[in-house]
Amino acid sequence: MSTSRHPLASVLVALMFMVSCGDDATRDVPSEIALEDVRQELRSLIDVTRSTPANGDFAGSTERRLETRLWYANRALRRPACNGSRCALILLAHGFGGRTERFDAIGERLAAAGYVVAAVSFPLTNQDAPGGFGNGIIDARQQPADLSFVLDALANATRDPADSLYQRIDERNVGAMGHSLGGTTVLAASRVRCCRDARIEATVYVEPAASAVEALFGEPFTASGPATLTFQGEVDFPIPVEDTRAFHAALAGRKILVEMVGGNHINMIERFADEPDPLLVEAAEMMVAFFDAHLVGGPDRVEEAAARLRSSGHTVRSEG
Prior knowledge:
By secondary structure, the chain is α/β, with parallel strands linked by helices. Helix content is 27%, strand content 22%. The model is unreliable at 1-7, 9-14 and 16-30 (pLDDT under 50).
């Protein structure tokens, strides 16, 4: 079922406002690390099989350059996310006019819980896109394939003894997170027939632009798919609360909707100040509990995390 109600032009106008691991663990492996011990790394991953179209004054390219920001622990963790040195991978998709460096706070927290996080900078919808991201929304049709390419590239890296990611990623456990238009990308990569990557086993959405799916990809998303966790702010403008509730209602299976008091389009997922918004910290705790339970089969602490959110005045609806 699709919740698509707006033409692509309407979605674009709204979005413009936002600019927004193999071996068994051993007893001496630490169960957690400090945020400052999380390693951050930038990689330029180039897909030579697909092109980047012309955009504004940008003439286009015969390849797609995918700058990818990684966060991962400096050492193996005795956490549900990791099986010895191999840890689950989470792909992270930015919104319209987004920047991967704004994900540093959320990336650090997921990495400190054991996950390897890969935030992809999409060629024509990131803030610094050649020709201007405002012209590049149609290229979002290529973004699900961008995620799949990055997944392939990181899977190859984890098999390379000369790579810093050697034996660090468990290719059997892959999750994905999407913010706003990045939510559209993850929806297509996990629930749209044209673009689905079956390796994605659990998904998290923050203010997803679900109504753009059919306009961009020519078909609706399916009700069936991976377990989902969705965050919506009570004061968001680009993505109305009613749209996110309709999206949540259209999904089958295990699904959780969190409506956060004081949440806006960015403060639950991106950091713009020196310190992350307290809502981001609360959201990150819920994300870790969700991925632990539904991606890697760890202890189910979702209800504990949900109870803490409710105690802070937020609304949590859990079904399936």
